[in-house]
Amino acid sequence: MKSIHNDVVLGSSAAILAALGFWLATGFSPEARVFPLLVLGPAVPTGVIIAVRGQMRLNRSGENPNFFISPSRFFLAAAVMVLALIGLDYLGFLTTSAIVIPVMSYLLGYRKPLPVLATTLIFLAIIYIVFVQILSRPLPQEIWTRLGG
Question: pTM higher than 0.70, yes or no?
Answer without folding.
Answer: no
